[in-house]
Amino acid sequence: MRVRVKLYSIFRLRYQDYDVERGIDVDLAPGSRLLDLFDHLQIEMRKVSMVRVNGRLNRDFCLILNDGDTLELFPLFGGG
Q1: Cα distances (Å, whole numbers) of residue 42 to 38, 48, 55
Q2: Class of 2-75 in CATH
Q3: Which residues, other chains included, contact 15 with Cβ-Cβ below 8 Å and sequence gap of 6+?
Q4: Could you tell me which residues come within 8 angstroms of residue 63 by beta carbon, excluding any fewer than 6 positions away?
Q5: Domain extents for the chain?
Q6: CA 23 to CA 4: how far, in whole Å?
């Protein structure tokens, strides 16, 4: 199955020609969960502050993804 992932802030740094409008397409095994996507992208769960799935805020990292889903991953933000 294929999902589209839009990355924000430091999560984009791993992808040299990252297209901010389009994001990246990721192929995963059917039945993959959001946690599996994090593993695939080598993003630590503890560094993710917010996830939107198909435009809706999601707090369940065990959510099973579907072919064609669009995900947005936001890192923790800091300031001072």
Answers
A1: 6, 12, 23
A2: alpha beta
A3: 7, 24
A4: 33, 34, 53
A5: 2-75
A6: 7
Q: For the chain, percent helix, then strand, then coil, each to nearest 5? A: 20, 35, 45
How is residue 1 written in tokens? 């199955």
pLDDT tens, 37-65?
999 999 999 999 999 999 999 999 999 99
Query: What is the amino acid identity at position 57?
Result: L
The two structure tokens encoding residue 52: 């939107």
- pLDDT, one tens digit per residue, over 8-30 is 999 999 888 999 999 999 999 99
* CB distance 8 to 26 below 8 Å: no
State phi, psi for 11 to the nearest 5 degrees. -65, -25
